[in-house]
Give the backbone structure.
Amino acid sequence: MKLNGNRWLLRISKSVVENNAENAVQALVHRFRTGNESLEDIARQNGVERIITEPLPFDGGVYNLNGERLIKLNSLAAPVRQRFTLAHEVGHLILENLLNTPPECTTDIHLERACDAIAVELLMPINEVTKLAREIGTQSPEKLGKVAKHFGVSLRTAAQRLYDLGIWKLSMGMWRYGPSPEQLWFVGKRPWKTDRPSFSVFGLAVESSAPVCTQERFSRGQYTELVALKAHHIGKNYVIAVVATNKKA
Ligand SMILES: [Zn+2]
């Protein structure tokens, strides 16, 4: 997540007197969660009377209906997505409290990103992520699943958080394997240009219960880039891969 130059994050930084954006968001969240308060507890502390899940054509939001403050969540979305949406809405409530911003989603992309940053700290607190990553050791596709499960977030959210905090330094992605593999997400720097790399590693991974490693070469200007992939099949033709690059002249 790009935090530089976000005017709301700059105001959070000023307010909590902390220059680093991630540490500023951590300090802000700590004001609203001093113990083990759940997302629901923090929503209630900020005036939300009910949290409703129902089928919606969007992820959810904060509403004032007949004098009652509600959070609505889309019951059709995956549980991890509902939880992220709830954390994002709590982010709106925290910023409303701190900076008097609107409680509902807006077209202000900086405000929405600031709420996402708060959501990520609520779901995956820096201290806990750092501790768990230290315990489980080197970055791998299998360990990503453990981290995501531990925090109740999507694989993508977990990968992005670990990368943004500089804890896991290699790029990672997820693909649906088929005749034309489809990239579902990618975190970090992608060494190839296409969205649909036809790597043999995907085919090998879906045949194997253990992760599979391969190396591929890509031309990038005057360089040939050697890309090491470690891919792991997580079922239903879904493959997660860690990507390491090594530039060769
Ligand atoms: Zn929003």
